[in-house]
Amino acid sequence: MSTPSTEASRRRTFAIISHPDAGKTTLTEKFLLYGGALSSEAGAVKARSGRRSATSDWMALEQQRGISITSTVLQFPYRDCVVNLLDTPGHRDFSEDTYRVLAAADAAVMVLDAAKGIEPQTLKLFDVCRQRDMPLLTFINKWDRPGLDPLELIDEIEQQIGLVVTPVTWPVGIAGDFRGVIDRRDGLFTRFTRVARGATEAPEEVVDPAQAAIDEGEAWQAALDGITLLDEVGADLDVELFVGAQSTPTFFGSALTNFGVRKLLDAIIDLVPSPSARPDAEGDIRQLDDPF
After folding, report:
1. Which of 19, 40, 104, 256 could form a disulfide with 122 if both were Cys (CB 3.0 to 4.6 A apart)?
2. pLDDT digit string (tens) for 111-131?
């Protein structure tokens, strides 16, 4: 019979924070898709007649406007772990709900629009994470559309939130011409293929670097040049700094097309800490295996 601490070690509980329309709820849907929790199609979440609403947006007003108003807890299995995903409202009118939810999370995923970078509501929610010394992953979304230069985005994130940015994946192809990503941990290139409306998992092909150089041409060389600059400044993944809320592992992708979603979800399993003992109302630490 497993103990509470054993079960807790299999849990990954995280919240998603973003400015409105950065793609937070669409990313939530895609996590459910890759976790096998969706039996129907997963697509973009928009406030348009005839479009499906998000699984996490269950209120009628949320479905009508295509926004999250209340926080929702979604649970699904992935890689022998149990993932607890806290989908929070991005609009400032409902931010109090988000602040409360962050108290229950062990980490957060910050979703940024590649064309806009850090936006006001994102910065406010990050400040709450900072106050709680919460580990933070960053997902630069919408790389399938025109956007900012990746190095420019990295610099903006560091300037705005003060964390060391450690890109784990690096895009091949400028924003709007997304070919795939290079995983800086092993140097492998994963090429993505679009699927209709992003309704199913995106086909992924691991390509030999020599072949990728031939296939991708200038886009490949530009990506390697960017990675060289990152290597020179030592922007490498450091798990200890991440858990200590001093750095943010960063991923590039597109929630709409499912590009990069699996790598982000794998990183959540590998990097996000499992639940630990916390103080009770009197300030005493209650161990996970203590009886109620």
Report:
1. 19
2. 999 999 999 999 999 999 999
